[in-house]
Amino acid sequence: MFNFTHHNPTKLIFGKGTIPKLAGEIPSDACILLTYGQGSIKQNGVYDQVMQALAGRTVLEYGGIEPNPQYDTLMPAVELARREKVDFLLAVGGGSVVDGTKFIAASIPFEGDPWDIVAKRAPLQSAVPIGVVLTLPGTGSEMNMWSVISRDSARAKLPFGSPLVYPRFSILDPETTYSLPWRQTANGIVDTFTHVMEQYATYPADAPLQDRMAEAILLTLIEEAPKVLENPHHYAARANLMWCATVALNETIGVGVPQDWSTHAIGHELTALYGIDHARTLAIVLPAVLDFKREPKRAKLLQYAERVWGIREGDENARIDEAIERTRGFFEGLGLPTRLSAYGLGRECFSEVASLFAQHNPNPVGEHEDITAEHIPAILERSL
Ligand code: NZQ
Ligand code: ZN
């Protein structure tokens, strides 16, 4: 196992009926800016619950943050917050609202062009504190220091990270997820699954605890997904999916082990270029990366085949093939296509994806730092 330092300061408040607890988590004299998306919280009652919890407080609102939050949408919130001297941000929504709010939090005190926070990874000196009420499990943003911001005019979708943007607290009430359309629930499951795979399907690092925790999340997702598909109001299954998503990307399983974020890096370009949902890009790219890198990943793929899918028969390559097929089958079964052709894309997109990837990834990616733009066609070829 590699050396590591683990410090995740986010306080997690989990369970049915926990939204009123946010009152005790925000300083009583704070000037709060409530940020949200394009209206779901007004339809499912979450907005009312939050406003009730904040009765008597100073609360400004900024709605309209879209999926894959846009720099141009977020900047007016930065200006509003500066003008009104906002000193606490409360994000209520899915990963896009949380990510967008992290960017707002970092931008308010930033001197210079806030786009540099993303484009140049400009170091941050401070950020306005954030709280979260999560309504869509998947990204893990509620308990990590990452944020992904898009800017269509620059054809960019780029991550930034800073310990300053860990949420101070996150409230996770699984009942808020009852109103999710199946598409978003399924997206969250595949996003979570892929986050686990990118910290697990690398090479053995003598880290059996991280391995088994990763496998536990994968198995839980596989078991719980059908329950929610059958009954969207299945509380226990909703709660399990929500907790899986948080643990998948709050550093628990990723400490001390190699990681391979190439699927996300390639997926972000597919979103930037063709507007495909984040998780749907991962469903296309992950099986292709596993196949392309089957040699360096061989030992872990065999372990994945056996422990997650129960595959013990056949030679090594056949077992790996079957594990990748089962992965595709799981994603497809949830309604996420795993082929570019489902989006009308073919070989003609390879060079466009590769050139944007080269622009955004000056250094090679992958656990061995050996995946570059020139490998993109060979990877995507496997998911035509
Ligand atoms: O905008 P509203 O009206 O709220 O509707 C949203 C949106 O249309 C809707 N929704 C959310 N909660 C709902 C609901 N609808 C009904 N009931 C509810 N309870 O769902 C739609 C999608 O929301 P969005 O926040 O975009 O989805 P998600 O949570 O999947 O976030 C995706 C973004 O997160 C980034 C992705 O790249 C993408 O931009 N990621 C962030 C990461 C991080 N910060 O660590 C890691 C991830 O890998 C990912 O890259
Ligand atoms: Zn993701």
Description:
The chain has 2 domains: 11-177, Rossmann fold (3-Layer(aba) Sandwich); 182-381, Dehydroquinate synthase-like - alpha domain (Dehydroquinate synthase-like, alpha domain), CATH 1.20.1090. Helix content is 46%, strand content 11%. The protein is built from 14 helices and 8 strands. The chain has helices at residues 40-43, 46-53, 71-84, 95-107, 115-119, 182-200, 208-230, 235-248, 262-274, 278-292, 298-309, 316-333, 350-360, 376-381; strands spanning 11-14, 31-36, 58-62, 88-93, 130-134, 146-151, 156-161, 169-172. The strands form 2 sheets. It has a 6-stranded parallel β-sheet, sandwiched between helices. Strands 6-7 form a two-stranded antiparallel sheet. The model has no long low-confidence stretch (mean pLDDT 98). 5,6-dihydroxy-NADP is lined by residues 37-41, 44, 67-68, 93-97, 99, 135-136, 138-141, 144, 146-148, 176-177, 179-180, 184, 187-188, 191, 249, 264, 278.
Keywords:
single chain; 384 residues; alpha/beta; Rossmann fold; Dehydroquinate synthase-like, alpha domain; 6-stranded parallel beta sheet; two-stranded antiparallel sheet; 14 helices; 8 strands; binds 5,6-dihydroxy-NADP; binds zinc ion
What global shape is seen? globular
* Structure class: alpha/beta
CATH C-level of the largest domain: Mainly Alpha
| Total beta strands | 8
CATH-defined topology of the largest domain: Dehydroquinate synthase-like, alpha domain
| Attached small molecules | 5,6-dihydroxy-NADP, zinc ion
